[in-house]
Amino acid sequence: MFWRTFRARLFIYSTILIIFLSATLFYSYRYSHDVIMTEADNHLFRLQQLLDGHLAAERNELQRYTTILSLDLRLKEYMFVVTGIGGDSKALQTLYDRVFGWLPIDRKIILDNDGHILIGNNNTDLAIAVRNNTTNNNNRFFYFQGKTGLEIAAVSPIKYRDKILGKVAVTRHIDQSWLNTNKAITGGEFFLVQNKNIISSTLNSLEHSPFNVIDNRITVNRQPYHLYQINLPGKNQNPLQLWFGLSEVDIVNRLQGHQQFILILALSGIAAILIISLVMIRNFTRPLLQLTHATSEISKGNLPLFAKSQVHNEFDVLSNHFADMIHSLRDKQDEIDKTHAILEQSAITDTLTGTYNRRYLQEVFPKLMAQARREGFYVYALMFDLDHFKKINDTFGHIAGDQCLTYFSQLLLDNSRTSDYVFRLGGEEFLILMISENITTATHHAEKIRQMLEHKPVTFNEQTINMTVSGGVSYARPENSTDKTLNQMLSRADVALYEAKNEGRNRIHQSNKPEDTGAFDSSKKAV
Amino acid sequence: MISNKHLALPDHPNLLSQYLLIFCLMMSPTLLAAEKKDDFCPMPQHDIKHPTGFITGAGAHFSWIIFNSIKTDLERVSGRKILLYGKDSMLGQGCNAGIKNAQLNGNNTETFGFVCCPLSKQETESKKIKVYPIAIEPILVLVNQSNPINNLSHQQVRGIFSGKITNWKAVGGNDQPIAVVTRLHCKKRPGHWKTILPSAKAFRNVRLNVSSADEMIQRVSDFSGAIGHTGSTWLFETGNKVKRISINGKVATAKNLKSKHYPYYRQLSAITDLSPSPDVLKIIKEVQTGAAFFETAKRFELLPLNKPGSH
Fold this sequence. Notes:
Chain A is an alpha+beta fold. Chain A is 53% helix and 21% strand. Chain A contains 13 helices and 17 strands. The longest helix of chain A has 66 residues. The two termini of chain A are 75 Å apart. Chain B has two domains: 170 residues, 3-Layer(aba) Sandwich (D-Maltodextrin-Binding Protein, domain 2); 129 residues, D-Maltodextrin-Binding Protein, domain 2. In chain B, helix 5 packs across helix 11.
C-alpha cells in the first residue's frame, strides 16, 4: 500500500503543512483588509487624540499667557492706576509692549469691568466675543469667528487688592498657517467650514467648495476622507467648523501594500515548503527505494549491484552496510556456483577418462533428439569396446589398463566435434552420440577412430601396448521418439558391436535392424 | 522691573540667588507688605565679593555715585584697590546692604558702607557702626514730560502726595487724574522722603509704591499724569520721559538747599564699623574733603557737609 509507505507519509505531512500554512496566509490575506480598516480607525482615533492634545496644549499655552499677564504685579498696578485713579491707559499699552511684547500671540485685549477697552482698541470683535463667552471671572478659553477668521481665545481676570480690575484676553488665529502646521504634525487634512462651504483647507483650491458630510466621510477631488470634527467650544452666531480628515486612498494604498506583502509571503512560503518537501522526500525515500529494490532483487535470487556511497547520514551507513552484505553474498554465491559446477561435472563425468558417464546420457539424449528434430537430422550412436582389454590388464596391469582407457577416451575426445558427446558406459565400453545427416558420416567417424587406435599404440613404462577396438553404429529417429528410444538405439548398437566382435573384432558394424536400415546408406553398410 | 541687563550681570553667577532676586523684584510692587519690613528683599551677600587686598564698599546707589565717580582718587590716596557695589541698588545694594557691608570689616576684610539716609543714634549704637556724613542731596520731584506743570508749591506737592489734590487741573495743569508714585524706603530713618510728608500713612492711599528708583522713573515715564521723586544723583537715561519741577519756584540745587529754599533733601553718608582700617579712613576722608568729591558734588548739585581738607 502506497499510503502506508514512508514516502507517502512524508508526502501527507508536507501536504498538511502546506495546507495549514496556505490557509493561515490566505486567512491573513483575506482579513488583512478588515485589520487595516480597523487599524485605520485606530489610527484616526490616535490622530484625534494627538490633535486634541495639541489643541489642549495650545489652549493651555494661551491660558498660561493670560495667567502671566493677569498675575503680573506691574500690570495690576497699571490697571489699578488706570481704572482706580483714572490714569492714561496708554501707560498700560507702553508697559505691555515693553514687558510682554514677546508673547507669541496674534491679538490681545484688556478690558475694564465695564467692558471698556484699555489695550487693543482695534479688537472690538474680540471684546464682544470676550463679553459673550465669559459669564464669570474664571479663566477660560473659547473659539470664535473674529474679523479675520477663526481664532482661539483665552481669558483671565485681573485682580488687585481682592478686586477684579478687568480681563485680559489673548488669541491665536486658526488660519491657513495653523492648518498647515497641524497637517505637518498629524499627517491629515484640515477643513475650515462655514455653512457647509469650505473656507480654507490644507488641500489646494477648495475654497467655497461644498462640504457635505455623510456618515463622517466626504469625497473631495474624488478622494474619500474619514472625517472627525474638532470640538470648538464657544458661542458664535455663525459658527465655523473645523474638520480633520484622513484620506482613504492612503489607507487603501497601505491595504494593497499589505495584501501584496501577504501574497508574496504566502507564495514564498508555499514554494519553500514544496521545495523542502521534495528535497526531504528525495533525501529520505531514495535510499529507501534503493534498499527496497535491492531486497526485492535478492528475494528473486539476484544479487544486484549496490554501490557504496560517501557517508553523510544514517541512510548512507545503512546502504553501505547493505552493499557490503550484497558483496559478501555475491562472493558466497560464486563459491557455491563453482562448487555446484564441480559437483555437477563430477556427477556426469567419468573420473578416470574425463568423458561423460551413463547418467549424463539419460539427461543429454532428449536435448539431442530435440536438436535433431529442429534440424531434420538423426541421432547416431557409435558404441566402442576395446578388444581384449582384460588381457591388457592381466598382461600390463590395471594401471596400464587405466592408461589405455585414458588414452582411448582422449582419442575419442580429440577427434569428435564439439557438438558430439563422448560417454564411458562402463569398463572398456564407450559411446559417442552425434547428430548427422546420414549414416555414412557416423560410420566413417567410427572407422576413423578405430583406425587411429590401431595405428597408434599406447606406451606405458617404455612398453608398447597395441590396442584395437570394435564398434557398432545405430541411430534414432527424432520424429518417433519415445522413452524407450535411447535404450532401443543403444541396444541396436550393442547388437552391432556384438556382431563386430563375433566377426573378429577390430571393426565397425552398422546395425542391421529394420529400425536402422532406412537410414543407412547401403553402399557403406560395412567398412 | 526685570531687565535683561540685570539677568546678565556677571556678578550674579548663582542661579538660586538670581531666582531669589527675580522673585523679590516680581513681588516688589506689593508695597503694602514691603512697607512693613525694611529687609523685605534680603540682600544676597555673596554677590558682594571681598577678595584679599581689596577694600570693598557697598550701599545705596545715590552714595555709590559719589564714590564711583572719584574712585581713581580714592585708590590713589589709599594706595589700595577698591571694589564698589551699589550701582544697581534695586538688586539689594541699598542702605541696609551698606550697613551690613560695614559690619563685615574684620581680620580678613576691609569694608565700608554708604547710605542715603541719616541714621539715628539708636541705630548706630545698636549696629555698632559709625556714620561719616558726606553731603546733602536734593530730592527731585518728577512729573511726566508731557505734563505742562513745571513748578509746584511746597503745599501743592504735599497736597498731591497726601491725596488732597487728585487732578492736575487743581494746580493749573490739564484735567487729568494724578497718579502718585512713591518709594517709601528706609521708613525707620529720618529725612529723605519724610521731608515731603512725615510718615507713610500721610501719603495718598491710592498710589503706586515702587521698590527702586528705576521703577520710579519708569512709572512716571509711562503715566502722563504721574508724579514721583528721586535723588538728584540718579543717572537718567535717554528714554526716560520725566522732568524735574521746581518747588516754590526754586530748582533743586545745592545753593537752594543751603539757603533752605528747596525743601526736599536727604543726607548721604559713609559708614564703618567701630574699628575701620587706616586705609578705609583715608578713603572716607577723601570722599568728605577731597577735591574730586567737590567736583562731583557740583555736578549733582550736592551740598557737601565738610569743608575741603577739613579733616
